[in-house]
């Protein structure tokens, strides 16, 4: 039973990998046919529909007020974006006019954990915060305030962001007012102050990326979960804030969290706020999805980089420890550029990336602070990488691609991955490689020589695949199921035979490592592993309960086959002898 294709929810036949094509296809000898995929698609489709229905109902009845509030928010008409509050002028703070205090224009969104992410608007371009010594503060209509802690500079738009804790009194308030960000601990609120509703994280436009021909919006909310995509015609994109000057354009695609908007037929040269709008139907009025995203036209590169690279992208959280091994190995076999989407790591990731850069590895880091948005992040990477990369490998940092046939090579070569891919002229748009899941292999801590040296025992069965995709072949919708992308109609998808190429997935590591990793899953549709729901999911570890307690005999689990192939290969290529044993090139 190949559940690995359960994520092909669109049940589109072109999402099914093709069998070996006819003669003349240079890559055909590498691929084999998986007849069972299509047979399962229909059944899986129904399972998915029921699952997403269940998901929706459980969201609606969730005790979590954020979800409920958001549900109501979606049913409110767009017009009431502004609410008036009576200001409590008795509050002592407000009698003291502060000289230096400046209101900073900003957008905000309520995150899980009653935290507000406040993002400074691009209109604040003259003096972008943060400035040392300033005491950034969030102010609320009733005179309450909370400290605004600097969070990060967001990539692409270069906006500073802060975090404020939502005061308790507003936690059961609906709608919640958007706080005012000011540069000191005191601020004079005026009775005319308008308090727009605070967008909630499950119903918001959170990112926009422009292409030459359109703009891609990443949006939480309208399409909830798998298999519930609303037709593009039911939406419009709104460029600009004011209802009389805003420009509306057509939405050309609506799949998962990714929407694509036509560009307005006038030139916009400064960043403008961009919204998504659900068009009025017989039953419902027009409603606007709130936004923290800005549109700015795509800058044409002064010196466009050569668009010929073989790139890799991955989304990480606190994996600095593994990154050197992963980058150095894959660079040696032909990955030219690494694009790391960092989900707010607080380990030494920056230092590791800097170190790799100083050794001439092309590694760039993109901060991706949006929680539980791995699919949207992968779609983003496809667009972002399209300027410089022809092929993009989507692999996690605990996954290593290799070919068993390379064991005869005494040195790695930068043509190795290339040799697993079809020629430039081929109409194969994506090649997937099955993975083998390695167990803890008796390790009790991170192995000194790296994962390829330490983990050598695995489960026997092939597990789900990972893919290298030709970016020009990616479907307009940018649909991704993490393990593969949807392709344009004219392109084919191949799954490589495990004798040709296979991914070693160091999935079940020494308990200390494994525990940390599985506490934070990045996918939007995969539940936290400690939560009792969807207990049959493939993402759940067999034999593991719902508590982060080391199962008995963990170090010996998932050990069915001794597989030393990559250990021997990497030791030959990257190991050098030292006094008592050997060291790997990535060891520091
Ligand atoms: C603002 O600063 C000026 C001097 O720089 C001072 O005269 C004035 O009283 C201050 N206003 C307030 C409200 O603190
Ligand atoms: C910020 O707060 C500190 C401590 O309260 C104070 O010393 C400092 O002057 C404040 N800075 C500004 C710009 O108001
Ligand atoms: C731009 O589009 C609007 C409708 O969307 C149309 O009315 C207008 O004529 C167009 N302008 C140009 C210059 O094409
Ligand atoms: C793990 O240790 C056991 C003995 O404790 C041994 O039989 C087994 O081969 C070891 N497995 C690996 C992968 O080293
Ligand atoms: C990449 O750019 C090409 C045009 O150069 C376009 O056809 C293709 O759809 C783009 N792919 C992505 C993922 O944006
Ligand atoms: C899945 C995951 O790890 N998401 C995290 C990404 O980063 C944000 C902000 O640090 C967290 O809130 C998410 O939980």
TrEMBL record:
InterPro entries in the record: Glyco_transf_92, Nucleotide-diphossugar_trans
Membrane topology: Single-pass membrane protein
Gene Ontology CC entries for this record: cytoplasm; membrane
TM regions (residue ranges): 43-61
Annotated localization: Membrane
GO terms of molecular function: glycosyltransferase activity
Protein keywords: Glycosyltransferase, Membrane, Transferase, Transmembrane, Transmembrane helix
E.C. no: 2.4.1.-
Taxonomy, superkingdom: Eukaryota
UniProt xrefs under PANTHER family: GLYCOSYLTRANSFERASE FAMILY 92 PROTEIN
Stated family: Belongs to the glycosyltransferase 92 family.
Protein name: Glycosyltransferase family 92 protein
Species per Swiss-Prot/TrEMBL record: Arabidopsis thaliana x Arabidopsis arenosa
């Amino acid at each position: 039973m190949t559940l690995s294709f359960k994520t092909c929810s669109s049940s589109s036949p072109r999402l099914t990998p093709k069998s070996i094509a006819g003669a003349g296809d240079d890559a055909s000898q590498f691929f084999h046919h998986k007849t069972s995929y299509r047979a399962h698609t229909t059944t899986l489709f129904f399972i998915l529909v029921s699952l997403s229905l269940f998901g929706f109902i459980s969201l609606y009845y969730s005790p979590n007020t954020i979800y409920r509030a958001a549900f109501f928010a979606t049913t409110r008409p767009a017009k009431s974006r502004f609410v008036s509050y009576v200001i409590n002028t008795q509050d002592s703070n407000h009698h003291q006019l502060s000289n230096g205090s400046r209101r900073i224009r900003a957008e905000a969104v309520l995150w899980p954990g009653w935290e507000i992410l406040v993002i400074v608007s691009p209109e604040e371009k003259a003096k972008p915060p943060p400035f040392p010594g300033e005491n950034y503060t969030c102010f609320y209509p009733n005179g309450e305030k909370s400290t605004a802690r600097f969070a990060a500079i967001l990539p692409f738009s270069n906006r500073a962001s802060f975090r404020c804790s939502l005061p308790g009194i507003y936690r059961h308030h609906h709608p919640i007012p958007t706080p005012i960000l000011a540069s000191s601990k005191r601020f004079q609120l005026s009775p005319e102050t308008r308090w727009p509703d605070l967008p909630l994280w499950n119903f918001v436009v959170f990112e926009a990326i422009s292409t030459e021909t359109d703009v891609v919006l990443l949006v939480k909310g309208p399409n909830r979960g798998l298999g519930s995509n609303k037709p593009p015609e039911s939406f419009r994109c709104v460029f600009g804030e004011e209802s009389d000057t805003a420009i509306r354009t057509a939405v050309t695609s609506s799949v998962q969290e990714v929407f694509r908007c036509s560009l307005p037929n006038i030139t916009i040269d400064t960043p403008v706020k961009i919204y998504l709008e659900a068009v009025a139907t017989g039953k419902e009025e027009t409603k606007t999805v709130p936004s923290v995203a800005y549109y700015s036209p795509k800058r044409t590169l002064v010196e466009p980089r050569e668009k010929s690279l073989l790139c890799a992208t991955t989304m990480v959280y606190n994996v600095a420890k593994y990154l050197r091994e992963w980058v150095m190995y894959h660079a040696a076999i032909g990955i030219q550029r690494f694009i790391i989407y960092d989900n707010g790591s607080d380990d030494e990731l920056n230092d590791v990336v800097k170190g790799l850069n100083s050794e001439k590895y092309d590694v760039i880091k993109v901060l991706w602070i949006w929680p539980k948005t791995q699919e949207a992040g992968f779609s983003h990477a496809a667009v972002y990488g399209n300027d410089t990369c022809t092929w993009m490998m989507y692999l996690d940092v605990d996954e290593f691609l290799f070919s068993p046939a390379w064991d005869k090579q005494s040195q790695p070569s930068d043509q190795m991955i290339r040799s697993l891919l079809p020629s430039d002229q081929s109409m194969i748009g994506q090649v997937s490689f099955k993975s083998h899941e390695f167990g803890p292999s008796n390790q009790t801590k991170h192995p000194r020589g790296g994962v390829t040296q330490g983990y050598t025992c695995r489960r026997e069965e092939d597990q789900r695949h990972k893919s290298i995709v030709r970016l020009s072949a990616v479907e307009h919708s940018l649909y991704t199921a993490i393990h593969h992308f949807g392709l344009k109609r004219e392109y084919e998808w191949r799954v490589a035979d495990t004798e040709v190429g296979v991914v070693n997935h160091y999935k079940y590591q020494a308990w200390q490592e494994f525990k940390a990793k599985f506490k934070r899953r990045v996918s939007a549709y995969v539940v936290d592993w400690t939560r009792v729901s969807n207990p049959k999911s493939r993402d759940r570890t067999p034999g593991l309960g719902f508590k982060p307690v080391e199962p008995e005999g963990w170090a010996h689990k998932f050990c069915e086959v001794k597989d030393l192939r990559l250990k021997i290969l990497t030791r030959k290529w990257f190991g050098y002898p030292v006094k008592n044993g050997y060291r790997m090139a990535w060891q520091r």
